Amino acid sequence: MTPEQIAQELEINYNVAIKWRVYPEFQPWIIQTWTWFMFDYDYNLPLYISIDNSHWWEDPHAIIVAQTEYDSDKIRIIDCLQVNCSVTQVASILWKNPVQWFVIDDNVLDFYSRYIKYKPATFLADPYDTNATLNETTIYKEYAKYWIHLNLPLMGKSKTWSKIEEQITITRNNMHRFKINNRCKSFMSAIQNARYPEHKQGSNRTQEQTKPIHNMTSHYRSALEYLTVYLINQQEQNFVKQNKKVRYIETANPITWEMSLRKV
């Protein structure tokens, strides 16, 4: 069944269905054809954990686990979890030493049973977490109690915090790089359904919406954006470092035929 037929079956117009989406490139039928297949954690690949933290229990914490491939530009999303608990509890879980279990469901238990087998990861989070107060501490410091350093998705040489619209643009431009494990259906649903506020018919508002609606899709979406911005920035830094290295080639003296190194 084509995307248009699916939309008609749901009695909606296909163009309207994707109009206000944050990530219209993220199509479930495309995911099924080329990225929806079973691959799993690979110990030999770098591991990243991106977190959108809840502030004051208002929303769930969103966690996505990703790996980058050495032989391609692909980024694997291998696991995910949304959980309602305190910052202290989620930090202790990610340190594989839960300090206090809470009311949990099978999804949390299933995630933890896989997570304890993962090697140490690079952790990523919202730059706001460095200042977000948590009683007499901050979210950043609370993770530090469990020896978890939260890396920040900063952009360029100036290490500036990226705006939401910049994060979205970078993620949209790299959406083709993602492979997503079959178990991450809740994550895929969130990315597929993340939307901007609609312009109501007859509304006088003409300014373009740059901030998505804050709802249950926001947390996985933000975690994906932190991951993408961080990885792209790391990639650019590595490219610059490689090009700054002094390169030499082996050459032969045309008279003595002795080999030497020449800077290039």
- Report the β-strand fraction as a percent range: 15-25%
Structural class: alpha/beta
Would you report the number of β strands? 12
> What's the multimeric state?
single chain
Molecular structure report:
- The structure is a single chain.
- The protein is of the alpha/beta class.
- It has a single domain, classed as Nucleotidyltransferase, domain 5, CATH 3.30.420.280.
- Helices cover 34% and strands 19% of the residues.
- The chain has helices spanning 3-9, 14-19, 28-34, 87-94, 106-115, 139-144, 164-173, 185-193, 218-244, and strands at residues 47-52, 61-68, 75-83, 122-125, 133-134, 137-138, 150-151, 154-155, 160-161, 178-180, 248-252, 259-263.
- Strands 7-4-1-2-3-10 form a six-stranded mixed β-sheet. Strands 5-6 form a two-stranded antiparallel ribbon. A two-stranded antiparallel ribbon has the order 8-9.
- β11 (248-252) and β12 form a beta hairpin.
- The chain is globular and about 45 Å long.
- The chain starts with a helix and ends with a strand.
- Mean pLDDT is 79; it is low at 6-14.
Considering the chains and any ligands shown, give keywords for the structure.
alpha/beta, 6-stranded mixed sheet, 9 helices, Nucleotidyltransferase, domain 5
List the helices and strands and how they pair.
Blueprint: H1 3-9, H2 14-19, H3 28-34, E1 47-52, E2 61-68, E3 75-83, H4 87-94, H5 106-115, E4 122-125, E5 133-134, E6 137-138, H6 139-144, E7 150-151, E8 154-155, E9 160-161, H7 164-173, E10 178-180, H8 185-193, H9 218-244, E11 248-252, E12 259-263
Parallel strand pairs: 1-4, 3-10, 4-7
Antiparallel strand pairs: 1-2, 2-3, 5-6, 8-9, 11-12
Helix pairs in contact: 7-9
